[in-house]
């Protein structure tokens, strides 16, 4: 049966909701800018007109609109965008000059506000305004994976779409923070981008996934500690399975185009199994967790359900450790008792006692109890247990964060080129 190229609504949830496709970029930026403007206007009204009877209603309506914008389909996006633009048009003229003068530290000139504010009042207003909004709506809250998996936080650990969004924003910020490195990755990718886009289209895979090489290796000829190699970080067995020649003389994992086609075919096979592109990403990096989820899942597989599955397992482990109950460890090939003891910061004697071992002999696949000495030690054990999970949990959002950051950097670069050309034209 011939594989059909995925339709747009079959692409990852992020590519749907955030409209990463190039043909939708203009609408996306227009709506995003409108949201920022209306948020700032509502914030300004709340602070300036304390006797404005409808200020709470305006604020609530704006929040409701933002929430609907984030969760609705494309048709609703357009309606909300239109509503936001109308709100902005009604009030932005009165506040435009004021915001420019006050929020950005200028001198008050607009007579409608009296023109008699002191420097201290201006500074206090700016501080309050910054608290009210920071050009980052609730959609732009960012959290690292370590913040999300904080052992000492109150209540259960939450890992759902909302925290996934926060994690994506964190990675976007990281890639923008280290923009020089990110730009170098983009430069290496762009040498092959056109050809790789053709390859991924031919294989029926969204072209955005050629960027896996950017998050896997920085588009370098890297080799991991698990001997995964090339831009797309294939293990030898997987590379050979998807048509790459790998021997003592040749290693086609290092060929960007050939390994890119192998990656596209691998992703296509994973999609045929999981039917969810975000699950495919999670399976690409840290596949054991997705395999376990597939075995235990009831009903259709989905990325939200996978997150719920992981969240439950993480909280079960955390609650277990909170009660000073032992963790468990499955012995791997090459392990010894001293190695495991060092990893968990306990003595071999503690492990032997907890497992009724008469000597230091252990065998692969043996299940050992790891004793918890106190809550400080429990936090360390939790960190060790989560170490294998972290890369898998953050990988899809790391990938999406890179796409967001790279698009922003590319748009900024294009804008600078246009500005420079315009200035040169004026000089002539």
How would you portray this structure in words?
This protein is mostly helical and 428 residues long. It folds into 3 domains: 8-140, no CATH class; 148-313 and 383-413, Orthogonal Bundle (Lysozyme), CATH 1.10.530.10; 326-371, Membrane-bound Lytic Murein Transglycosylase D, Chain A, CATH 3.10.350.10. The protein is 63% helix and 2% strand. It has 18 helices and 2 strands. The chain has helices spanning 13-17, 25-48, 55-71, 74-103, 119-132, 145-148, 161-177, 179-190, 193-202, 212-217, 236-241, 256-274, 277-284, 287-296, 303-322, 337-344, 348-354, 375-427, and strands spanning 327-330, 367-370. Helix 13 packs across helix 14. The radius of gyration is 26 Å and the shape is globular. The chain starts with 12 loop residues before the first helix and ends with a helix.
CATH level 1 class label of the largest domain: Mainly Alpha
Distance between the termini: 61 Å
Instruction: Write the CATH fold name of the largest domain.
Output: Lysozyme
User: Could you name the ranges where pLDDT drops below 50 across 5 or more consecutive residues?
Assistant: 1-10, 16-30, 41-58, 91-115, 131-139
Lateral arrangement of strands in the main beta sheet:
1-2
Order of helices and strands: HHHHHHHHHHHHHHHEHHEH
**Which word captures the global form?**
globular
Largest sheet: 2 strands, antiparallel
Short description:
The protein has 428 residues and is mainly α. It is built from 18 helices and 2 strands.
Q: What labels would you give this structure?
A:
3 domains, mainly alpha, Lysozyme, Membrane-bound Lytic Murein Transglycosylase D, Chain A, 2% strand, globular, 428 residues
